[in-house]
Design brief:
By secondary structure, the chain is mainly β. It is built from two helices and 25 strands. It folds into two domains: about 160 residues, Porin (Beta Barrel); about 210 residues, Porin (Beta Barrel), CATH 2.40.160.10. Strand 8 and strand 9 form a beta hairpin. The radius of gyration is 22 Å and the shape is globular.
């Protein structure tokens, strides 16, 4: 038995035994009283039209569109911790999605798994369980969950969220300072019911090891973060970040600066890798308006490195359809956000952004370009029977010298129900 399996078994067995004994124990107070259970109902329609004959080929013909519709249910149950010097708890995710519509030749939206014959699955799902232990202000978590870290961000952009299986320690023993460390060894992507090895561009590595820390100060207005991760025998990556919020009269000015340095690691199963990212975003917010400018510059022979299926949200120009993360790419973004509470419609928001990239080294070209426009209109019901129901319409357009040209619409309904 490996160390990681022994650790998982020990913590899961201990936490499970505690849970079974709770009804007869005074330790039940924290475990039960601090528990939360929610059910998220998500209805998702996705339609991506491929333009200029850039879509994938289906039986020798161009695929005109990827269009699918699903209904999913996400049960998120999180216990508190048992009382005592060391507290134990359990978290669980129960994930399931069913196909409402997906015609032949229109698969590949990322909402559903795809069979070998090209058809999408009628349904899929999985259960993710994690045991946790708390000592003072330090938590150990072992199992599978929706992990979101600057160096590894699970993707929740389709019917079901991506989850990772592993172990993580999070420590808050010092005011303002949070330390992280751990290892992930399995990956369940957003449209997959299975658990696969951690991989990059289809190349399987060994474990994904990481460590990092974030320090908040200046009244929590300033954050400094530093991270390092290794997908063993594939790549290693370091990331440093500085964020700052500065109120000035009726305005709040925000800055997000980052630097990423990535290269091959160990046996270099994916070959020679070399990627650096220099980036910054600047936001000015006043009243119900927010204005953002961002710049992102990649340097090196390879694109931004991330675990397969993971979000590119660490990048300032990451969006719904594109991350502008090609080799040597330079991209800038202009964005506007508006809250309709200023017009007497609380719960409604509108986002528009435009991103342009150039200097791309891909497809045999040294100067390829691309651009994208994205909009999101969202509304959350404020009261009544359907309180907290959230509706989003996302509309996107992407044009590229190298890659797929597309026009896309998404309609997403999220309805959270609190059971506990």
């Amino acid at each position: 038995m490996t160390v990681r399996n022994a650790l998982s078994l020990a913590l899961l067995t201990t936490a499970g035994s505690m849970a079974l004994a709770l009804p007869l124990s005074s330790q039940a107070a924290g475990f039960i009283d601090d528990s939360k259970v929610t059910i998220g109902l998500r209805n998702y329609y996705f339609n991506r039209n491929f333009l200029n004959h850039t879509g994938p080929s289906v039986n020798g013909n161009d695929q005109g569109q990827a269009a699918e519709w699903t209904q999913s249910m996400i049960i998120d149950a999180r216990s508190g911790f048992t009382q005592g010097t060391v507290g134990f708890g359990l978290d669980a995710l129960v994930l399931g999605a069913v196909k409402l519509d997906s015609g032949g030749g229109s698969t590949g939206s990322g909402l559903l798994p795809k069979h070998d014959d090209g058809d999408s699955a009628d349904s899929y799902g999985r259960v993710a369980v994690a045991a946790k232990a708390m000592l003072s202000k330090t938590e150990l978590k072992v199992g599978e969950w929706f992990a979101v870290l600057p160096i590894l961000r699970a993707d929740d952009g389709r019917a079901l969220p991506q989850t990772f299986q592993g172990a993580q320690i999070t420590s808050n023993e010092f005011d303002g300072l949070t330390l992280y460390g751990g290892q992930f060894w399995k990956n369940s992507q957003r449209n997959d019911a299975s658990r696969e090895e951690m991989s990059y561009s289809g190349v399987e590595g060994d474990d994904f090891n990481f460590g990092g820390g974030e320090y908040k100060f200046n009244g929590n207005n300033t954050l400094v973060g530093a991270w390092h991760a290794r997908l063993e025998d594939v790549y290693q990556q370091s990331y440093v970040q500085l964020t700052h919020n500065q109120p000035i009269g009726d305005w709040v000015l925000s800055t997000n600066l980052g630097y990423v340095d990535g290269k091959d690691e160990g046996a270099a199963k994916a070959g020679k890798l070399d990627n650096k990212v220099y980036q910054g975003s600047f936001t000015a917010k006043t009243g119900n308006n927010a204005f953002t400018l961002a710049y992102q510059h990649l340097d090196g022979d390879t694109k931004f490195m991330r675990i397969d299926g993971a979000s590119g949200g660490t990048l300032v120009n990451d969006g719904f359809t594109n991350s502008y993360d090609n080799p040597e790419e330079r991209s800038w973004q202009v964005r506007h956000d508006y809250n309709f509470a200023g017009l007497g419609i609380p719960g409604m928001t509108l986002m528009n952004r435009y991103v342009s990239g150039d200097n791309i080294k891909a497809g045999g070209r040294d100067d390829a370009e691309e651009w994208g426009r994205e909009s999101e209109l969202a509304y959350t019901v404020q009261s009544g029977t359907f309180k907290n129901l959230n509706v989003k319409w996302r509309n996107s357009t992407v044009r590229r010298d190298v890659g797929q040209d597309l026009h896309e619409n998404r309609l997403i309904f999220n309805y959270p129900l609190s059971l506990l």
